[in-house]
Specification:
The complex is a heterodimer. Chain A has one domain: Formate dehydrogenase/DMSO reductase fold (Up-down Bundle), CATH 1.20.1630. Chain A is built from 15 helices and no strands. Chain B is of the alpha+beta class. In chain B, a hairpin with a 6-residue loop joins strand 2 and strand 3. Classes of the chains: A mainly alpha, B alpha+beta. Chains A and B meet through helix 2, helix 4, helix 7 and helix 9 of A and helix 2, helix 3, strand 6, helix 7 and helix 8 of B. Bound molecules: iron/sulfur cluster (3 copies). The site of one iron/sulfur cluster has 13 residues of chain B, from helix 2.
């Protein structure tokens, strides 16, 4: 019976999959090159721009996308919102993939990849980066545990599934705790650069803003991938799930908007937004995509009643929050870092690795949908 | 620690721009030479890099007829509570009791957070190497331990740098400013900047005109991240209470609903 749960009917080779595999192979080649030739040969990073898109997009963005995992798991296991049970597994899988990819990006990005374990034994509790490193290790392990029932079910290890299900509530709680801390810690990384990061983004509550925007991104990711997989894999999904996610998204986005406005008014001021500077324009683009348009569409139109409308809104939010991470990690620091003439534009290899990791994410998701009991679960059928 | 740690006063009115310190530093630290180009001023190289721990900035000022040249010896300021050390996830950077902020290559994972966090952009990376190290002025920590002066100070023909315990160095800076009215601007760079540095500067030209970072916060920067990290236990408490609480409440509601449902049945 268990094979009924997997999507064996999903076609393995489609043009999109073939394209993904090509992008992944190209990226793999570049990663090997980076590991044998170093950062100078493969990236455009330099002494004034020590961090580039591998950090801003792959790590900051990837981890924000993973937020859906802890949100949906908490909703189902802690808040007992049974309605969302069918999407728990895709959400957890996305989070797991997000973290694995962030780890690959970190391995590429740090100068001494073979020492990636150092923070586990060389403690420095004053360092946010240490806090981040510990969270990545602990949360990836937790996600592996949350993900394991899918694998065990597939392998037919029903005893193992039962054991994990029994401890699921504390595991989910632990995961939620780590996620809240990890999402905000990534914002806290930038608290140390008050003179460098543009006031459009620097403020003392940066950690909290990172957390709230990650929740928006997480909700959108879960919604987006459920819509896509429902379409591509022709799985019927209860419309109530989507409208529920959209309502949650609208609430969080409204809260985020108020926060952002508060820090705009108390920080650089509203007039600064229209100064036409590079930072001001990036801020406008970010705000328009991440909150203003999505909120307007969610609250003012009937778009949330159709899947295509919701899909569009999800894409806006995901792009907007991604731009926020780019703004904090690169654009907001650009003016300061470029004062003595050096500039930064990613090398083609940095792009190649970034695109490869994104393709890999989609590929793993598709393979999981094909081979694992992803879109329905044993326990869901119990009720 | 701070009061007895070693410290240096750079009196920029004494510097003649000979770059002897730059050469002595390169020699002592066995840094290789790099080909440079003239960028239209005499600062060479224009920036610190992984082979250049100290350089001398040549700054031309004076809005009148005669140009006024200033020479700014530039290197790690060895902050008293250094950002680079506080942000390092593996404690590769440390502030030693003697004053120098030292680096341990064997610990470093190469995340480059130190480079981002330093308010003076001092740490530089060996980008061209496969397994790069972060490089910066060491304050000649081993020399100091052996009772020797740092290489640049030993070399300087004009005694531009005054080496001593920090409180003596601060007192000397104030004494020089007070004893020659009109000669210096009344500011010792490094007493308050970044919460206090071990290398201090006095100058006859306003610091802002010499390319010093005047926006650097007057507080010890690690406090900014610590205020977040120290709040983590409270966040843990809130999330645990909220999580367990909502689990208990929603379970109870569910049980009640089920029981209620049973009663309703005939
Ligand atoms: S100047 Fe920069 S590198 Fe030197 S001790 Fe201070 S923070 Fe560290
Ligand atoms: S690059 Fe090395 S020294 Fe700098 S913060 Fe990272 S681990 Fe520490
Ligand atoms: S050796 Fe002394 S005089 Fe010569 S450039 Fe260095 S600090 Fe100035």
């Amino acid at each position: 019976m268990k094979t009924n749960n997997t999507g064996n009917d999903i076609r393995m080779w489609t043009p999109a999959t073939a394209a993904m595999v090509l992008v992944m192979l190209a990226g793999l080649g570049v990663m090997v090159y980076r590991l044998i030739s170093g950062l100078g040969a493969s990236t455009h990073l330099n002494d004034n721009f020590p961090w580039g898109i591998w950090l801003a997009v792959d790590v900051l963005g990837g981890v924000a996308m993973a937020a859906g995992g802890f949100i949906i798991a908490s909703m189902v296991y802690l808040f007992n919102m049974k309605k969302y049970k069918p999407i728990t597994r895709p959400a957890i899988l996305t989070a797991f993939i997000g973290y694995l990819l962030a780890i690959v990006a970190i391995i590429m990005d740090i100068g001494q990849p073979h020492r990636i374990w150092h923070p586990a034994v060389m403690w420095q509790i004053r360092s946010v980066m240490w806090v981040v490193a510990i969270h990545v290790m602990l949360y990836t392990t937790t996600l592996a545990l949350e993900f394991s029932p899918m694998l065990f079910e597939r392998l037919g290890w029903h005893g193992a599934v039962k054991t994990v299900q029994k401890i699921m509530v504390p595991v989910v709680l632990f995961g939620a705790l780590l996620s809240v801390l990890h999402q905000s810690s990534l914002g806290a990384v930038f608290l140390i650069v008050p003179g460098k990061l543009s006031p459009f983004w620097y403020n003392s509550k940066l950690p909290f803003l990172f957390l709230v925007s990650a929740v928006m991104m997480g909700l959108s990711m879960v919604s987006l991938e459920t819509i896509l997989s429902a379409r591509i894999f022709r799985h019927p999904v209860d419309m109530g799930i989507f409208t529920g996610l959209a309502r949650a998204l609208a609430g969080v986005a409204l809260f985020y908007f108020v926060l952002k406005m508060y820090f705009l008014v108390t920080g650089p001021g509203v007039a600064a937004v229209f100064s036409g500077s590079m930072e001001a324009n990036m801020y406008l683009i970010e705000m328009a995509l991440s909150v203003i348009l999505p909120l307007a569409l969610l609250l003012g139109t009937k778009m949330k009643e159709s899947l295509s409308g919701l899909l569009f809104i999800d894409v806006l939010v995901i792009a907007g929050v991604l731009i926020n991470r780019l703004n904090v990690g690169i654009f907001g620091l650009y003016r300061h870092n470029a004062t003595n003439g050096q500039t930064y534009f990613p090398s083609w290899m940095e792009f190649a690795v970034t695109f490869a990791l994104i393709a890999l994410a989609f590929f793993i998701f598709k393979m999981a949908a094909r081979h694992l009991p992803l879109l329905s679960s044993e326990t869901a059928s119990e009720h | 620690m701070a009061k007895t740690a070693n410290s240096v006063l750079v009196d920029m009115t004494r510097c003649i721009g000979c770059r002897g310190c730059q050469i002595a530093c390169k020699a002592w630290n066995e840094r290789s030479a790099r080909k440079t180009v003239m960028y239209g001023n005499f600062t060479n190289p224009t920036d610190l890099n992984s082979d250049c721990f100290t350089n001398v900035r040549f700054v031309e000022n004076g809005n009148g007829k005669t140009p006024v040249w200033s020479f700014v010896k530039n290197q790690c300021l060895h902050c008293q509570d250094p950002s680079c050390a506080s942000v390092c996830p593996v404690a590769a950077f440390r502030k030693s009791d003697e004053g120098p902020v030292t680096y341990d290559y064997e610990r470093c994972i190469g995340c480059r957070y130190c480079m981002l966090a330093c308010p003076f952009e001092v740490p530089k990376y060996e980008w061209e190497k496969l397994l790069p190290a972060v490089q910066k002025c060491t304050f000649c920590a081993e020399r100091i331990q052996d009772g020797l002066l740092p290489s640049c100070i030993k070399t300087c023909p004009t005694k531009t740098m005054f080496f001593g315990k920090r409180e003596d160095v601060v007192a000397e800076a104030k004494r020089r400013i007070a004893s020659a009215p009109g000669k210096y601007v009344n500011h010792v760079y490094g007493i308050e900047e970044a919460g206090g540095t071990s290398w201090l500067y006095i100058s006859s030209v306003p610091f802002g005109e010499l390319g010093f970072n005047m926006d650097v916060p007057k507080v010890q920067l690690p406090g900014l991240t610590w205020s977040y990290i120290s709040s983590i236990p409270a966040v843990i408490g809130v999330v645990l209470v909220a999580g367990v609480g909502s689990w208990v409440v929603t379970r109870r509601n569910e049980v009640k609903e089920k029981e209620g449902g049973k009663e309703d049945r005939p």
